[in-house]
Design brief:
Length: 179
C-alpha cells in the first residue's frame, strides 16, 4: 500500500494542479485515493454515467472515447501522470465520453464523496485542488468564449456570413463575462 501511496503522491505533484505542494503533504492526500487496475478494453466509465470521481493515471494508457451516433471517436489517449474526470468532483454531471484502458493500466481514483468530505472538513489540499480546478475551468471557459465570439459579432451582423442559431446566440450572451 505504501508503494501505491508514494506513486500517487509523485503523480499528483506532476499533474500541474498540485505541482508546488510538498511531497510529504501529497503523501497524506494520496491516502484518500483508491487503486483501480484495468485490462485492455476495460472501461472506467461509460459516456452518460454519473461523474463519480477524478482519475490519475499511474501506468498504462486510457483512451477517452466519445460515441457519436453509434460511431466511436477517440478524443485523446492519456498516459501517466495525466489526470481526467476532475469536473466530476465539482458537479457529478454525466460523463461526456467513455474512458477505456488501451493496455494494462493502473489508475488512482478520488471518489466524489471522499472529496466532498475533505472539503467539508476544511482539508487545505482539497481546497487548493478545488481552486486549481476552478482556475483551469475558468481559463478553458475564457478561451472558448473568445473562440466563439470570433464567430459571432453582436454589434456588426454582416461581419460573417455564418447564420448563428438562436441557441448559440443566447448561450454566448449568457456566458460571456467581461471581467
Amino acid at each position: 500500500m505504501h508503494e501505491f501511496t508514494s506513486s500517487v503522491a509523485v503523480a499528483l505533484q506532476q499533474t500541474g494542479l498540485l505541482n508546488h505542494i510538498e511531497l510529504g503533504d501529497l503523501h497524506a492526500f494520496a491516502l484518500h485515493f483508491e487503486r483501480v487496475s484495468l485490462a485492455p478494453g476495460m472501461h472506467l466509465f461509460q459516456q452518460g454515467d454519473d461523474g463519480d470521481g477524478w482519475y490519475l493515471i499511474l501506468s498504462g494508457m486510457v483512451a477517452i472515447v466519445r460515441d457519436e451516433g453509434g460511431e466511436d471517436h477517440v478524443l485523446d489517449n492519456l498516459e501517466a501522470p495525466e489526470s481526467f474526470g476532475e469536473m466530476a468532483l465539482i458537479d457529478g454531471a454525466p460523463r461526456m465520453a467513455s474512458a477505456e484502458a488501451v493496455r494494462p493500466t493502473v489508475v488512482a481514483r478520488m471518489p466524489r464523496p471522499t472529496f466532498d468530505t475533505l472539503l467539508s472538513s476544511g482539508d487545505p489540499l482539497a481546497i487548493h485542488l478545488l481552486r486549481a480546478m476552478s482556475g483551469v475551468m475558468c481559463q478553458r471557459h475564457r478561451q472558448l468564449i473568445w473562440l466563439l465570439s470570433d464567430l459571432v459579432s453582436f454589434d456588426e451582423p454582416d461581419v460573417t456570413d455564418l447564420a448563428v442559431p438562436p441557441t448559440v446566440d443566447a448561450l454566448l450572451r449568457s456566458t460571456i463575462t467581461w471581467h
